[in-house]
Amino acid sequence: MSQMYFPHGRDDSQRTNVSLVAQKNTLLISHGRPPWYGPNGKRISDAFVIGVGGGSASGKTHVARQIVKALGSIPTVLILSQDSFYKYHSPEEIKLAFENKFDFDHPDAIDMPMFASCLADLKACKQTNIPVYSFAEHQRLQETKYAYGATVIIAEGIMALHDPALRRLYDLKVFVQCDSDLMLARRITRDSKERGRSLDGILEQYLRYVKPSYDNFVRPTAAFADIIVPGQNNTVAIELISTHTRQQLQERSNSFRPKMVTSSLHAPSLVDQPLENDSNLMILPSTPQLEGIFTILRSNDTSKQDFIFFTDRLSTLLVERALQFLPYSPHTVTTPLGVDSHGQRLVSKYVCGVSILRSGSALERGFRRVINNVPVGTLLIQSNSIDGEPLLLHLKLPVSIRRRSSAEETWVILLDAQIGTGAAAFMSVRILLDHGIKQDHIIFVTFLVARTGGITTLRRAFPHVKIVCGAVDNEMREGWLEGDRGEGNKDGVGRTIWVMNPGMGQIGDRYYL
Predict the structure, then answer these.
(1) Per-residue pLDDT for 186 more than 80?
(2) Which residues are in the Phosphoribulokinase/uridine kinase domain (predicted)?
(3) What's 134's domain CATH number?
(4) Residue 344 phi/psi, 5° resolution?
């Protein structure tokens, strides 16, 4: 697979494994990731990082998976293997590797700075690109694997506790201790089945490199561990680790929705600030044509065919207006009559769209009519049925965003039907910033904005994000979403939601159902 992503929410029994290299780099997902930032847009919590060291075939990967299993409903856990970070090898080194004469168990064989860099990015809630190493070819490949969004990261490897830069990133350090004979037996089984090596080659490599490395470099790192776990029969130790991890995550938990509401209430109201004075918030000029479109879209009697047609018309107008924020430069062309004509051309190297599912998809047809042949990614952000907190459930972004080298040059047109409470919009912008997208390279296109909603907090947190909208509704009213037991609702028939008034209803449902 070319990327890690968040699928739709599922029970723990249905956790999805995304296997990367030798089935060791694994992303496990439960119900989605809650906010990791505050109303000011800044990150307020890091991912929790566990370092798991120990000898070759001591059971590190098994311990990591048992920790994941014991954690239960923790939203997203990534197991990051040291094996991905072997260095590039010269032809001479590859030849030695095939002859079992290259020392893969020495610290110098691992690209420790890259390992620490990738782990630091993930800990800071940023995206990273993990290298891919082929044991069959004894070489690091040109491709990389994209990773983003873990709440808990388990970094495992024989040298996981050896490097000081790595140790500084860990919140918990674990050493897996195992009998040497058992480790050798496991290594023989693994290398013969998974890596196609002969018994003589396995034993030669073990005696020449693996055992000396364990004695000189690996076993001494047990002194840095917070807890030492047996390589087998380790249920009690696993439970202690998972209990501690859950406690640490609870202490870092962030009730974003109440904080955002409070921040919005105490922020200067947009009612007292003419929107026309904000150069980064553009509202389509009110014309008879635009008012006619909104009249049709707001009407409960509009047919589905008409709703789709006029939604596409409005999205086309909005995206056309959004294009003025992209960078242009003077350009001269020659007409069919042989005359020079002076104009402008788009100079951005990367332009893409990102749709916030599912109502944001209603703008995609208009987007593609205006901007031809550019990639469109998707985000799925939904409210938790209990507390209303936004949850990141799915992530599939264009390549230019996933790659750190191109993200800073990428312009993103973010698509969603409306900005009401602003929770989904807030999380979407934060995700793009985590990937290295510049704030002033984000253009948010939406049909409606609620004047008394989360737009105030959104603009204060991200003042350089451009917002293009069709109209502003002055009110939001409280309502109930039936089918979920909401706290504070004594009848238990739903939870509190805020809807725009007069609004356009459930735009995604009206467009697709």
Answers:
(1) yes
(2) 49-231
(3) 3.40.50.300
(4) -130, 155
